[in-house]
Amino acid sequence: MNSSNSIDFHVKPGGRLQGRLRVPGDKSISHRSIMFGALAEGVTHITGFLEGDDALATLNAFRQMGVRIEGPEGGRVTIQGVGMQGLKAPKEPLDVGNSGTSMRLLCGLLAGQGFEVTLTGDSSLSGRPMRRVTAPLAKMGANIETTAAGTAPLVIHPVDHLQGIDYQMPVASAQVKSCLLLAGLYAQGQTSTTEPAPTRDHTERMMRGFGYEIQREGATATLTGGGRFVACDLDIPGDISSSAFFLVGAAIAEGSDLLLEHVGINPTRIGVINILREMGADIEVLNQRDAGGEPVADLHLRSSQLKGIKIPEDQVPLAIDEFPALFIAAACAKGETILTGAEELRVKESDRIQVMADGLVALGIDARPTPDGMIIQGGQLKGGTVDSHGDHRIAMSFAIAALRASGEITITDCANVNTSFPGFVSLAAGAGLKITS
Ligand code: S3P
Known about the structure:
CATH superfamily of the largest domain: Enolpyruvate transferase domain
Low-confidence stretches: none
Bound molecules: shikimate-3-phosphate
Distance between the termini: 5 Å
Strand order of the largest sheet: 23-24-1-25
Shape: globular
Strand content: 25-35%
Number of helices: 13
Structural class: alpha/beta
CATH class of the largest domain: Alpha Beta
Radius of gyration: 21 Å
Largest sheet: 4 strands, mixed
Number of domains: 2
């Protein structure tokens, strides 16, 4: 570690992944657990909460709006719900750091609160598109200012009332869907979102868990404003997006045999399992069970020779956060892997198509970026230095790549790994990755 803001990973080549481990709690579910717990009537107890910077940004935002929250401590959080109308205007802007989910979901939740509030973020988040939420919110009657480029800071002005809309989403985005459904809680009449492809449905599941009626018909989710949430207890499963680094690592490192315990396997999140299996990965799904309305399982992983594939486009939204790790799998596979239909990767925490292609090329792989994906020829990874551009998932993906590299890999700008996966270095090292920071 150089300083608190500048962390590099150094990963020696080779090794295999073994043993059993539990990755931290699901990021998407952790964000939502705070939001719904805060708006509920009664006390919500959460276990398995992700103590990463992104979910903590959401937690702190609600503290700034007057909600009493105890923890997190060992993944336990207790929220004294204030009810739908109980939030107070924060004294300062709400700074949500690197977290797109906090910014886009809060934007909807706050649009109809009746107080003024500003949302800010770090330089990466301040470059990401926000019109995808502010434009439909404006149709509902919201008054939200962005920069001329349609980015944060977002200044949310109070309005008399919001009106429900029926919105056909141009992009398959769970953040857009959730933003509008949260705004719909405060709107007159019905709010409906129709998605062009299935996206993660944690918002809908959790709303039901908190006793709010929400209908789902095909691709359309509909709710009526003016209802209430009733507090409940939540056990948050391990994050399949954090598991993805181990799914890929165990697949590519010969001799690996790893058990990941208590991983969320919501059908809208399992694209990474489907894609890796099609590439020839050995993934066993064991002990399927339910944890608070979300399906959970243990995943038994063993190494195998992967083969290149044309990734089915219908799997893209179901694996949207896992492509950095999947590109490493493709680099280690026999033959060519082609990804199309994934232009959304260009507006994540970094431009994940360009940044991953640059890193793979630096490590000797033939990786050609395209406007909406990448073409990768499997080959021999060599050692070298790659820049993660402050993107947590890029940093962890190149760390895992060292399992199959011929030389040491150094990854720069890794501090943001803490946004989604605090403890990654020690957990990965414990399983066999030769990593130091
Ligand atoms: C998320 C939705 C996805 C995902 C993000 C978390 C969520 O974003 O990439 O990490 O919790 O709703 P998009 O909705 O922009 O695809």
